[in-house]
Specification:
single chain, alpha+beta, seven-stranded mixed beta sheet, 37% strand, globular
Length: 155
């Protein structure tokens, strides 16, 4: 595994079909139950707000997908390449997506996160998301199903 050098400036670009192979490769490493290629294709075709974050040398560091509806945004996926964890890229991707949502008129953003994903929960809480509920049996897991913590932030 190669070390990631923090770039002086990340480049955010809309996700396209050309990015899907890289996105799926990262997704399959960072999640035990990753989104499928079809999930990403569907998100692009549905017109969701899909973005990538790359280092100046074009290395894919993170990506995210938000569904925008009226004045609410729903964060569906935010992932950082395993080699780039704990370097601040998750925060920068989240902050960029929140700005995208605000720019489209969203007043709130919500998300679901696994209770077992403590690093993500800490990131969202530090950013200002508050826990507003649980969805029972929301995620697949090795033991059957796992609940989801529902979080929301005012934008």
């Amino acid at each position: 595994m190669s070390a990631v050098v923090r770039p002086s400036e990340e480049q955010f670009t809309p996700m396209s079909a050309r990015d899907i192979d890289e996105v799926v490769a990262i997704e399959s490493v960072v999640y035990p139950f990753p989104w499928t290629r079809g999930n990403f294709v569907d998100a692009l075709q549905a017109g969701y707000s899909c973005w990538t974050m790359r280092a100046a040398e074009s290395e894919l560091l993170a990506y995210s997908i938000v569904m925008l509806a009226l004045d609410e945004a729903h964060l569906l996926n935010l992932s950082v390449a395993a080699r780039a964890h704990r370097l601040g890229y998750g925060w920068r991707m989240l902050d960029f997506m929140a700005q995208q949502a605000r720019d489209h008129g969203a007043r709130t953003m919500m998300l679901e996160v696994r209770p077992s994903n403590q690093p993500a929960q800490r990131l969202y809480a530090r950013y200002g998301f508050e826990r507003i509920g649980m969805r029972r049996g929301y995620y697949p897991s090795h033991g059957g199903r796992e609940d989801a913590v529902v979080m929301r932030i005012s934008l």
